[in-house]
Amino acid sequence: MRTFWPRLKDDFQLSIITLVGLLAVVGVSPYAVFRLGEGSWLVGATDTFLVVSTLLAVVYAWRTGDTIRPGQFLALIYSTGAFLVSAKLGANGLFWMYVLILFNFFVVPPLQSLIATMSTLVAICVYGWLHPERVFESHYQMASFVVTCLLSGLFAFVFAHRARVQRRLLARQATIDPLTGIGNRRTMDAELDIAMADSKRYGIDFGLLVLDLDYFKQINDRFGHGIGDQVLVDFVDCVREVCRPSDRLFRLGGEEFVLLVPKADLNSLKAIAEHIQQRVRTQLLRPDGAPVTASIGGSLLRGHADRDGWLKHADECMYDAKRAGRDQTVIRPLAPNRAVAATEGPDYHQ
Ligand SMILES: Nc1nc2c(ncn2[C@@H]2O[C@H](COP(=O)(O)OP(=O)(O)OP(=O)(O)O)[C@@H](O)[C@H]2O)c(=O)[nH]1
């Protein structure tokens, strides 16, 4: 229950599927009971099937976190339901088509929705054409139905497409650093939590490097903010060239970065840090030709109870590297002043 509201709030698709489940119970169940009561077995059974299937899709989405397949399933069964209801009830059932148009655009991507909606429209029209006066009372009514459905579908498509683009943009802005294109602090927090869970569950060792450019303020002050920005972008390129595809780089803020390294030990962390420093020192030059350097602090996940404690420890190591003269690496097991156990390895100062 503790995760119910946050999940509902954060996952748009899940909230829509849940709403559909609620509406199916509240809005379709009475119809099912009424139709079964008056002896309309096909429509009653269709409504009952819709309610039960919807509830199953809602449960599946909540249990697995997958909202794509339940969405497609719901679009399929509701489209079929709309066809059956129209075929059985005639003009009175056609109104459900407008609900279906909106519904489909909510639960599946715009193109899939367009296909599902248009297929249903074509199926109803073909059935209506082959069975005169069973669905449509006249050709004029059929033409009006087609035109109004097409217009509703078009508006829904444009709206759904725009909303989708905006949602993607918002999600990107919330997780990506706009200057360098790497994950921001929010993304890092989420990935560190996943790393901690993986470490517990699968026993994978994770290493963390905090990388901070040295005397970066001088670069800004002497050469301007634009050059400073370019140095940050080039620094990210340098680090990416050195690390493996499985390593994850984030911008913590300003000129401070974090590299998450799976399957790491003290030796491999030290090797990566030195490799990065060497690459930055030789490839990243200021406009006056002086090398740009970075101080690096590192820590292994071992023994850290929480994400912030792990990060703080690596950050403290980075400040020790600054104090040791900059362009240095300090990688240390958890307790700085504790006698280092043989399995943990020694402190490393480059
Ligand atoms: N160009 C640019 N500068 C930034 C950005 N974010 C933070 N800064 C600057 O980064 C500088 C950081 O300065 P300090 O914290 O004093 O660090 P430093 O000069 O690198 O000194 P040390 O870290 O002690 O070596 C400040 O001048 C900030 O204005 C950014 O996105 N672009």
From TrEMBL:
<feature type="transmembrane region" description="Helical">
    <location>
        <begin position="12"/>
        <end position="34"/>
    </location>
</feature>
<dbReference type="GO" id="GO:0052621">
    <property type="term" value="F:diguanylate cyclase activity"/>
</dbReference>
<dbReference type="InterPro" id="IPR050469">
    <property type="entry name" value="Diguanylate_Cyclase"/>
</dbReference>
<keyword id="KW-1133">Transmembrane helix</keyword>
<feature type="transmembrane region" description="Helical">
    <location>
        <begin position="142"/>
        <end position="160"/>
    </location>
</feature>
<keyword id="KW-0472">Membrane</keyword>
<feature type="transmembrane region" description="Helical">
    <location>
        <begin position="111"/>
        <end position="130"/>
    </location>
</feature>
<feature type="transmembrane region" description="Helical">
    <location>
        <begin position="74"/>
        <end position="99"/>
    </location>
</feature>
<dbReference type="InterPro" id="IPR000160">
    <property type="entry name" value="GGDEF_dom"/>
</dbReference>
<dbReference type="GO" id="GO:0005886">
    <property type="term" value="C:plasma membrane"/>
</dbReference>
<keyword id="KW-0812">Transmembrane</keyword>
<dbReference type="GO" id="GO:1902201">
    <property type="term" value="P:negative regulation of bacterial-type flagellum-dependent cell motility"/>
</dbReference>
<feature type="domain" description="GGDEF">
    <location>
        <begin position="204"/>
        <end position="334"/>
    </location>
</feature>
<dbReference type="InterPro" id="IPR029787">
    <property type="entry name" value="Nucleotide_cyclase"/>
</dbReference>
<protein>
    <recommendedName>
        <fullName>diguanylate cyclase</fullName>
        <ecNumber>2.7.7.65</ecNumber>
    </recommendedName>
</protein>
<feature type="transmembrane region" description="Helical">
    <location>
        <begin position="40"/>
        <end position="62"/>
    </location>
</feature>
<dbReference type="GO" id="GO:0043709">
    <property type="term" value="P:cell adhesion involved in single-species biofilm formation"/>
</dbReference>
<dbReference type="Pfam" id="PF00990">
    <property type="entry name" value="GGDEF"/>
</dbReference>
<dbReference type="InterPro" id="IPR043128">
    <property type="entry name" value="Rev_trsase/Diguanyl_cyclase"/>
</dbReference>
